[in-house]
Write a structure and sequence with these properties.
alpha/beta, TIM Barrel, Immunoglobulin-like, 3 domains, four-stranded antiparallel beta sheet, 14 strands, 16% strand, glycosidase, GH, glycoprotein, Alpha-L-fucosidase, EC 3.2.1.51
Length: 461
């Protein structure tokens, strides 16, 4: 029942009376022109908010950054060299950290419950960072993976199972194309990437392996190693992913598939870490950022001021979604498998905020204005199903009134509601455009939420 390339023969499908939908599935060629024409699965834009998890052997030293190995061995940065000299014996190698990545407190059910409480709709776990250590028992990463060394557990499988059993989150995986110190990669780099030993024997087989084994709905690629997409055969892999993989209908991908592809090719654009343009973009994008201002991995030396406050996170979420983006908020667990209490608190706070204001985030579209022209700290989204304009304001005005310069209100038609508060609010139009809204007089305890509020406006052009 197969035609060329494993496709069911159309004539036979018609004879069997199978739905015409099966015949309509497009085939994507391994070219950027064809791949970039694939529509982004709708769930991703509707989700708006995800959690990134950076976890690996770098969580053992948990000092400075998840780039610890590179900064210590390659760049020989002084703080890293001194840290090793002061705390580890001479001759201690980065590989010696592997058995110390123990994950004895890793409870995937607890992680899933925290992720659910955050209000996120998807999660992306680092299956492998630039250090090359895989969090699953990869056939292509012998003795440098979480099943052979350290936890002796398939961490990817455990988290995937818990997320799918206990939440409605979409499960995704980050994967680094290159590895800093892999000899095959370094040999290819020396040959100006005219040889392709590393991608054919290591990186690409890993990608096929994680897709087939764990069926992630996000492949978050990273780390091109200054090599072009032709070296990585990115278009060949993506054509398989979109045409023949077990997640071909729902999977989304990012834009990090080789030098020159970022912000140009792929499913959604990331453009750069912590990318937040502050204005509407013509292509779906994601702001991947981290609660710890300085690192994606866990840092034992972090101080309270290094972590973004909940007010900062709500602001980032409102700004990002109003400009058409998704927010991917990163946490870094500890080497023993804990989500540090400060990260858990931030995630639960965002979840509490979304319980009240979620209608202004999930499933929304950008409005004709992204932020208000009169009052700073006001960001707009549009709920197409309800036909509402949402004005998320980050500062409660001391005057008790909020002026909005963008909405065109109509007497007898426009209604204004504060999310989480039952009664309609009074307002006055300011000519053809703009309005002043009287906010309810509430004590701090009576406020529907903290750290930002949503006005829901109906019939405001």
């Amino acid at each position: 029942m197969s035609g060329p390339g494993g496709r069911a023969a159309p004539a036979l499908l018609l004879l069997l009376g199978l739905p015409g939908l099966l015949l309509a599935r497009p085939r994507y060629e391994p070219t950027w022109g064809s791949l970039d024409a694939r529509p982004l699965p709708a769930w991703f834009d509707e989700a708006k908010f995800g959690i990134f998890i950076h976890w690996g052997v770098f969580s053992v030293p948990s000092f400075g950054s998840e780039w610890f190995w590179w900064y210590w061995q390659k760049e020989k940065r002084e703080p890293y060299v001194k840290f090793m000299e002061a705390n580890y014996p001479p001759g201690f190698s980065y590989e010696d950290f592997g058995p110390l990545f123990t994950a004895e407190f890793f409870d995937p059910n607890q992680w899933a419950d925290i992720l659910k409480a955050s209000g996120a709709k998807y999660v992306v776990l680092t299956s492998k960072h630039h250090e090359g250590f895989t969090l699953w028992g990869s056939k292509y990463s012998w003795n440098w993976n979480a099943v052979d060394v350290g936890p002796k557990r398939d961490l990817v499988a455990e988290l995937a199972t818990s997320v799918r059993n206990r939440t409605d989150l979409h499960f995704g995986l980050y994967h680094s194309l290159f590895e800093w110190f892999n000899r095959l990669f370094l040999e290819d780099a020396t040959n100006a990437f005219k040889t392709r030993k590393f991608p054919t024997s290591k990186s690409l087989p890993e990608l096929y392996e994680i897709v087939t084994k764990y069926q992630p709905e996000i492949i978050w690629s990273d780390g091109d190693g200054n090599a072009p997409d032709t070296y990585w055969n990115s278009t060949g892999f993506l054509a398989w992913l979109y045409n023949d993989s077990p997640v071909r209908d729902t999977v989304v991908t990012n834009d990090r598939w080789g030098v020159g592809s970022i912000c140009t090719h792929g499913g959604f654009y990331t453009c750069s870490d912590r990318y937040n343009p502050g204005h509407l973009l013509p292509h779906k994008w994601e702001n991947c950022m981290t609660i710890d201002r300085s690192s994606w991995g866990y840092r034992r030396d972090a101080r309270l001021g290094d972590y973004l406050a909940i007010e900062d996170l709500v602001k980032q979420l409102a700004e990002t979604v109003s400009c058409g983006g998704n927010l991917l908020m990163n946490i870094g667990p500890t080497h023993d498998g804990r989500i540090a209490v400060v990260f858990e608190e931030r995630l639960r706070q965002v979840g509490a905020w979304l319980k009240v204001n979620g209608e202004a985030i999930y499933g929304t579209k950008p409005w004709r204005a992204q932020n208000d022209t009169v009052t700073p700290g006001v960001w707009y989204t549009f709920s197409p199903k309800e036909g509402k304009v949402n004005a998320i304001f980050l500062n409660w005005p001391g005057s008790g009134t909020l002026e909005l310069g963008e909405p065109r209100a109509k007497l007898g038609e426009t209604q204004v509601k504060l999310a989480g508060y039952k009664e309609l609010l009074k307002w006055v139009a300011l000519g053809e455009k703009g309005m002043i809204i009287a906010l309810p007089q509430l004590t701090p305890q009576q406020l529907p939420c903290q750290w930002g509020w949503t006005l829901q406006l109906t019939d405001v052009n």
